[in-house]
Amino acid sequence: MCVVLLEVHDVDKTFTNRFGSVTAAFGVSFEVSAGECFGLIGESGSGKSTIASIVSGTLAPDSGTVCLDGQALDTRSARSRKAHQRKLQMVFQDPRASFNPRMKVMDALREPLIHKLGRAKDEADAAIEQVMEQVNLPTGMLRRGVHTISVGQAQRVAIARALLAEPRLIVCDEITSALDVTVQASILELLAHLRREQELSMLFVSHDMAVVAQLSDRVAVMESGRIIEQGPVDQVIGNPVQEYTRLLIDLA
Ligand SMILES: Nc1ncnc2c1ncn2[C@@H]1O[C@H](COP(=O)(O)OP(=O)(O)OP(=O)(O)O)[C@@H](O)[C@H]1O
Ligand SMILES: [Mg+2]
Questions:
Q1: 4-17 vs 202-206, strand pairing mode
Q2: Is any ligand 1 atom within 6 A of the Cβ of residue 25?
Q3: How many CB atoms lie within 10 A of CB 59?
Q4: What single-letter DSSP state applies at residue 126?
């Protein structure tokens, strides 16, 4: 059965500054089913992060709707934003930027469990030990400062932290872009493994078609704020309708 988990409908967003205005999203609509990985691909500036922020409730669209798990997001309501954000987790390009530099890995992982989910310390520590195993990091690393580990290890910690919050949806924005090729491959393999092990639903944003294709079930191609084609990944890559999509495939 296909259950729609995320529904983005007819979203528009224009940024205006003293240099003029940019339409970062125009009529953007797509759906993500429970357990599905939906890829969003496009060149730099095509509007991918704008959509990721709107889906995450950190940026208000000018018009259009975002529904997660049957609940419409009202960005003007703090209560609605909070309820929405409790159901999703974001992972970003630079994992270390999202950690307090003075924190140990242990503290970075305890934070959402104790402060957001209200878990007791013992329970939190057991969950942390388990998640470290899931992301293939030694528990000895828990005592290290988050800024003393490598970017690839920090990205695994960021993924671990996202998993601990038990989200309905994980939004990944260019999470492998700061990593070298072998580390990138190992992070993608980890996510693919986690997807097989547990029902993970993901919105996976990248400018790299090869990266998106490796993980996604379906993919949408963005150009200048619009989705110009979307469909199952094999269909979009094997038989692209748009010339722009063909260019992205050739670049990968
Ligand atoms: N806060 C902002 N103020 C003004 N313009 C913005 C803002 N955020 C994004 N934009 C503009 O909106 C357009 C889409 O930006 P966005 O960051 O969504 O693209 P992207 O596809 O994520 O690009 P990249 O691959 O480089 O991350 C760009 O032209 C960008 O300059
Ligand atoms: Mg971006």
A1: unpaired
A2: no
A3: 17
A4: H
- How many other C-beta atoms lie within 10 A of the C-beta of residue 128? 22
Phi, psi at 32, each rounded to 5°: -120, 125
Q: Which domains does the chain have, with CATH numbers?
A: 1-87+218-252 (3.40.50.300)
Distance of CA 140 to the CA centre of its chain: 27
| Tens digit of each residue's pLDDT (9 = 90 or more) over 158-187 | 999 999 999 999 999 999 998 999 999 999
- Nearest-atom number in ligand 1 for the CA of 25 is 14
Q: Which residues surround ligand 2, an ion (CB under 5 A)?
A: 49
Query: Is any atom of ligand 1 closer than 6 Å to the C-beta of 64?
Result: no
Joined together, the tokens standing for residue 3 give 């259950």
The protein residue whose alpha carbon is closest to atom 5 in ligand 1 is 15
Q: pTM (2 decimals)?
A: 0.95
Distance between CA atoms of residues 170 and 119, nearest Å: 21
- Rounded to the nearest 10 degrees, the angle between the axes of helix 151-164 and helix 181-197 is 20
What ligand has the least distance to the C-alpha of 53?
A: 1
